[in-house]
Amino acid sequence: NILSYATEANPDILRTTIKAVEEEKPLFKDSSRLLLSQILLRLYLDAKDFEGAFRENVFLDEGLGVNGGQLLGFAEQAIGQKEFDVSLKAYQKVAEKSRVPENVSLARFGYAKVLELQAQAEPDTAKRRVKYARALSAYTEYEKVYPVSNKMPDALLSIVRISSEVLGNNSEASAAVRKLQARYSYFPQAYAAQVLMAKRLVCEDKIS
After folding, report:
1. CA distance 43 to 33
2. What is residue 1's three-state secondary structure?
3. Residues ≥6 apart with Cβ < 8 Å to 200
């Protein structure tokens, strides 16, 4: 069994196997090619090669006709490994190519979420602020395009958090809080947003 030896515990065998399978890819068609791609995907993930895994997920998504379903799952997997750049690529691919509106909505929300995660992980203060601004822009655009999405409470809470805690835009944060209170008053996100704003106002009062 090719997968029993080519594992993370045997990196040399793993790399050699990936190279050999890649060279054989042009010889396979249809269902055999899909099966080979599934094997390659497993190998790439074992090798922590998320770019390679992304390529195979793109092929599988198209070959299986799942309109982004394969890539959405992969994007979440990449996030779990903090592979933010490749998860952004996966979400962007779904947003651009999928014919399933729900998948496009999930991809655009996921894209904004990853931008926020990248900002959180950025050690440089100036760069972190720029990245948060990008995330805020993505969330704001998502709110405009998908106002009734079930992800909207999370999107609005992120708008509150970034606007108040990072960018110091209390006006935008307050507007998002009002939307949460009006539309989702019984949701935990509405309460969390109120707490964030209260803390922000207390801090400002102490400073002044």
Report:
1. 15
2. coil
3. 164, 165, 170, 173
Residue positions counted in the chain: 208
Q: What is the pLDDT along the chain (208 residues), one digit of tens a residue?
A: 555 555 665 678 788 889 988 998 889 898 999 999 999 999 999 999 999 999 999 999 999 999 999 999 999 999 999 999 999 999 999 999 999 999 999 999 999 999 999 999 999 999 999 999 999 999 999 999 999 999 999 999 999 999 999 999 989 999 999 999 999 999 999 999 999 988 877 766 555 4
The reported pTM is 0.91
Instruction: Using alpha carbons, list the distances in angstroms from residue 142 to 32, 71, 148, 158, 196.
Output: 39, 19, 10, 12, 21
Q: Is 80 helix (H, G, I), strand (E, B) or coil?
A: helix
Count of Cβ atoms closer than 10 Å to residue 53 Cβ? 24
Residue holding tokens 């779904």? Answer: 94
Residue 21 backbone class (left: φ over 0; alpha: ψ -120 to 50; beta: rest): alpha
DSSP state of 164: I
> What token pair was written down for 155?
């999107």
- C-beta atoms surrounding 47 within 10 Å: 18
